[in-house]
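Run folding on both entries below.
>entry_1
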Amino acid sequence: MATTPTPHIGAKFGEIAETVIMAGDPLRAKFMAEKYLENPVEFNHVRGMFGFTGTYHGKRVSVMGHGMGMPSIGIYTYELYNFYGVKTIIRVGSAGSINMDLHVGDIAIAMGACTNSNYVNQYELPGTYAPIADFTLVRGAAEACERFGYNYMVGNVLSSDTFYSDNPQNDKWMKMGVLAVEMEIAALYMNAARAGKRALGICTISDHILTGEATTAEERQTTFTHMMDVAFSLL
């Protein structure tokens, strides 16, 4: 185990809680610290990737950004799991729906994560690996959505390496029941599996790739907190 601070996280061991709720945008992590945490203390600002530790209803928790794409979340979650003793990471982020019943503002709970990335190749597995979430977290998130009255679906997402693609082929993923497209969850789930830890991805639908449906600034402000409510309810 490497010593802390790590090359990408400026915290000392013990300054990060065993559960970390992460968002791609570090400013969204800052927003979560201000909205949900009691007595938040900043533990990281290396590369502008803010991280804070505080309490939520008396339970110690950290929030942190993870950047865009599987290489970025791969680095941060690897260091959290393997160098800081983190046991659970929950990603809250946005996704584009490719399911006709999953609309803007709805929540996608990622039970599994397909990918077009080569991230899995590092493990030299003799076949195709299927990255999945921790079932207890999936069940808890679904139950929380029911309690809050939030529209949601549970299923597969696609973690794509490309945001602007010459040949996206989303219709083919849709035929296989994939709910939505995002860019990070598969790497999170693989890192969790390799470390023997827990992970969950919860996404708010920001746009519908097939219909052109999209969020307004007001909708993003009011509905993107729903996934955060769900994530914090899992503590």
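>entry_2
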Amino acid sequence: MADNKLRFDTLKVRGGYDSERHNYAVSVPIYQTAGFDFGNTARGAALFSLEEQGYLYTRVGNPTVEVLEQRVAALDGASGAVALASGMAAVSYTLLNVAEGGGRILTTPHLYGGTVDGLKKLFPKLGITIDVSDQFDFPEALEQEILPDTKAIFVESISNPNGVVADIEGLAQVAHRHGIPLIVDNTFATPYLLNPIRYGADIVIYSATKALNGHGNAIAGLVLEQGGFKWDSGRFPQFEEPYYTLRDATGRERTYLEALPDFPFTGRIRLNYLNYFGAALSPFDAYLVLLGLETLSERVGKQVGTAEKLVRYLESHDRVAWVKHPAAKGSPYRQLADRYLPRGAGAIFTFGLKATVEEAESFIDATRVFSYHANVGDSRSLIINPAKTTHSELTPAEQRRGDIQAETIRLSIGLEDPDDLIEDLEQAFAAVFPVSVPL
């Protein structure tokens, strides 16, 4: 049965895989090989001219990795996908691919700290200007900030760490009126909670290290494309440029739009950026992500439910100043979450204590079940202080603009019993604040 006729929970287990092509193996095999035999010179020529789809070298394509690509593409309704060695490689290759040769990327201050720092340090030196706008909650106002050389709008669907929810449909409409793509980092939501392509996103990025894998044992990234964006508008000359390496069997040079019409964006990342910058995902790590995907719905569904219980608990605690999650009381993103995230707005959120920074750090140190490290989306529950860790690259002004307060604590909720997590927070409160008094 074709993948497009299957429902989500079937696709996450079976999508992109035909056992007949893999010696009828029930589990996806790990093709731990650097290269592949071409068989004969005629087939080698067909492979290199793209007349035959096949495998040349694991740096640019591998059967295990391809199953991961096709499975996530099926879950997202994408026409093409490329898997990479990390989420940051996915972000970097995507933005370089869209703005190659110079231009501007319009983005928000509400991003992962490493993304912000990379945009600040690297891209301007490569001729790409990063425009940061505070108008992402108001797509119509944001439209005024699109310039003639703006190449894309880039946003996180649920922001790291404070859970800002993007109005994807509104942003997509603005982007498309100006002939530019909307790029959405959907890491926190995963395709289980949100399908950005359904709402008009053109490119979707994942750090598969996080909830897609869900077990904290592999680093991986993915880039997917919707497939219908018009790259031949003249705004993106890199897609209309003939390449000698894309010549057909007659020797005629072709563009990516000609050679790979269904997935020119991810195909170009694969054959240019992945091929020559080399952030290749290993077959074994692809296999680990595939194993994680099989339980995506079950894991994320439970994690979201537990997160909402902890949000309610913390909102009622007299030592908590605020909680930021789309399901929190008074959240300005509740309406957008109801629209885009009916299954829940993720299992990662922040809160602030009525305390000093030192007391907040003591609170983190006092937890026993929560693990203190920088991943999210793990099966284990995690706790961290973003201002000193995941967003420490940001200057004080950038932290203020991104609403990263010094006392912010981020929780990523795992699969433990929610009562054990609440009891762990309760004993941490008792350890740092032995006597509860009205504040």
